[in-house]
Amino acid sequence: MIQIGTIINTHGLKGELKIKSDSDFDDVRYQKGNHVYIEYENTMVLMEVNTYRKHKGNLLVSFKDHQDINLVEKYKGSAIFVKESDRKPLSNNMYYYSDLMQCSVVNEEGTLIGKVINMEDTVNAQKNMRIKLEDGKEVLVPFIEVFIKHIDLDQKVITIHQMEGLL
Question: Do 136 and 74 fall into the same domain?
Fold first, then answer.
């Protein structure tokens, strides 16, 4: 299973849940009729998407047969998952966030810089890698071609161009 988001709150009275997304394919994941799993009390609850929309940087999703706040309020704080087998193949130079997590980050000389601990979206800008450096400090590196030189998912290593001032 792959985590694609976290339910952070309810929205309105008709069962919409406010979701912080961990996916870069929300429009695909939350199409009406698609299935996701909500982790609730150590159980995976299968849900069918009824509605989906974006609202103030988060997602608002309702599920079939759960269009009532009283039926969904209990899911606040729960994680949302999809089966790994449901992932669609990606074209070249595209990556799932989950595949990049915990990759080692090295510079072009091969020196270890740290590990990827999160992928973050910036509103109206590029995606960023949050890297935990060897000294424990965290930095953001734009996930763009200028900085990302090579990604080896088999070895779980990302090579970056470490220009002055980046870290």
Answer: no
Identify which of 20, 34, 23, 25 has the alpha carbon closest to the alpha carbon of residue 77.
20
Q: Which two tokens stand for residue 94?
A: 């595209």
> pTM of the entire structure?
0.65
**Final residue of a structural domain among 24, 57, 86:** 86
Domain boundary among 44, 61, 86: 86
How far apart are the C-alpha atoms of 101 and 107, rounded to whole Å?
Answer: 17
User: For every one of its 167 residues, what pLDDT tens digit does the chain have, with 9 covering 90 and above?
Assistant: 888 889 999 998 999 999 998 776 788 889 999 999 999 999 999 999 999 999 888 899 999 999 999 999 999 999 999 988 877 777 777 788 878 988 999 999 999 999 999 888 776 677 889 999 989 999 999 998 899 999 999 999 999 998 887 77
Residue-range definition of the domain harbouring residue 32 = 2-86
User: Is the separation of the CB atoms in 29 and 98 below 8 Å?
Assistant: no
